[in-house]
Amino acid sequence: MAIVAVGVLLVGCGEEGATPVEDAAGSDSATSFMPTTTVEPTVAPETGPPVGGLAVRILGEPTAGAICPAGERPCLTVDRELDDLGTPFVAVEGRIVDGVVVVDAVEPFEPPPRPPDLCDDRSPTGADAGAALAAYEDGLDGYNASWVSPTGVFHLRVVGDAAPHQAALEDLGIAAEVCVVGGARFAAEDLVAAEIAIRERLVELDPGGGLGSVSAEEREDRVAVDVWRLDPAFRSELESLVDVDVAVRGVIEVIDGTLDDLEGALAEVHEPSEILLERWCGDVPLPVSTDPASLPPATEAESISSVLDAVPDLTGRGDGSEVDGFDWRIASASDDVILLIGLPVPDGPWAGDGYGTVRLERSGGEWVLGGFGGGCTPMLEAVGFETQALAFVDGAAPDPTSTTVGVLVNALFCGEQASDRRVEVVVVEEGDDEVALVGLADEFIGDDCAQDDWRIVEFDLAAPLGDRTLVDASSDARAPLAPVPG
Question: What are the distances in angstroms from CA 275 to CA 7, 36, 63, 97, 175?
Fold first, then answer.
């Protein structure tokens, strides 16, 4: 039996606190949008007319005046700012009226928590993980999924009772570092069969790919399939294609209407011009213009300190450097998840290697380690854009007397896409000594491209540039803009 990686379509861009879960092939799988906590929806205030429109449900990332389906552009304009619900992705229910999504309700969506260690007698993963997967490639039946726990233990989920699978791995001499978990309902081939059947139907209906991709996983004892666009009739059709118990969900779902209605409604939608910047260090979100050193110290919370003290044992290193090498600060906190950013201690074991990150999750009324990382660099991002290099033409520095400044953004030419690629410069901060900028260009869909395509982009300042330095603020290095040949 060939083990095939089954991903999840709804992938968050820089989603908060998400920890990759390894799929069957050992690569990072995508992240599901299934909520892990029940939160009362935020109901939009009465806004009066217009009434009606096409009723939809959209899963996506909120940004400035918009919702970006599955965290990708084009984003859809909304009639009000979406409340900060403490999660990077939300589910919006509303109506598309005259090109605007009139919001009726908003619910948070979080990635599921990374599964804890389910075996207390296994050490962090080693060569046995790959050997276990190879055994299923060679003929063992019942594989469902695999992942590595926060403490590094390799877990193998199988259909039915785990005991026969554990015994089989012991006979092969590869069970010492593998935690076998039973109880799955579907084998991986069932998930793959459902995915293939539905993907083939999508291609038949729309060879151009407008209905999007498809992915499948086991979720709440059903084969859960995610597609890009969906209406009630299309859901019934897709669910009838598969023999197993399947539930289909769409990134944009028409609640009362058809996909033809949706196509017409989306044709009237205009993407908002404002760009919302986000700053991430690994999986931890940070304020755009705030020094991490100014965030609240984690040591002020006794419950957090007690978990940090256990990090060395939980990560398997045991030398204390995971905690002692960082000055931990609270980046964000909710009832169920706390995200920490660690400033490397000068002359410590992590000095010069970037920041550390810790994810803490509430389990059974106590905080437990959900993930640990080191070596991240804070970076500015914007939904649907790639950060690009900035420069100015050699010998043609910006006019210091003007409030309108032009700089070069490298859009990276890629075949015919370059002529249509949107390029922007965002002023992050105007100070007395420098002006911090970030250059952005539309994300490419397809092969990477590397041929320079410098384009002049103008932007406005609140005061003449003067002798202030233009700096690239895409990372904390804030390097001054350099000239390129004209």
Answer: 29, 29, 8, 23, 51
C-alpha dihedral over 155, 189, 32, 256, to 10 degrees?
-160
What is the edge-to-edge ordering of all strands in the sheet holding 355-363?
326-333, 337-344, 355-363, 366-376
Q: Is 188 left (phi over 0), alpha (psi -120 to 50) or beta?
A: alpha
E strand residue ranges, 283-401: 284-286, 326-333, 337-344, 355-363, 366-376, 379-382, 385-388, 390-393
C-alpha 8, offset from chain centre: 12
Strands lying side by side in the sheet with 154-159: 143-148, 154-159, 178-184
* Residue that has been written with the tokens 């000095």 in this structure: 351
Query: Locate tokens 């939904």: which residue?
Result: 383
Each residue of 49-101: pLDDT tens digit?
A: 345 789 999 998 887 788 888 877 778 889 888 866 666 788 999 999 988 99
Nearest to 54 by CA among 12, 89, 96: 96
pTM: 0.60
Give the closest residue to 407 by CA, choosing from 329, 465, 349: 465
Residue 131 φ then ψ, to 5°:
-65, -35
Whole-number Å distance between alpha carbons of 79 and 70? 19
Whole-number Å distance between alpha carbons of 218 and 230: 20
CA distances, 345 to each of 300, 351, 353 (Å): 18, 6, 11
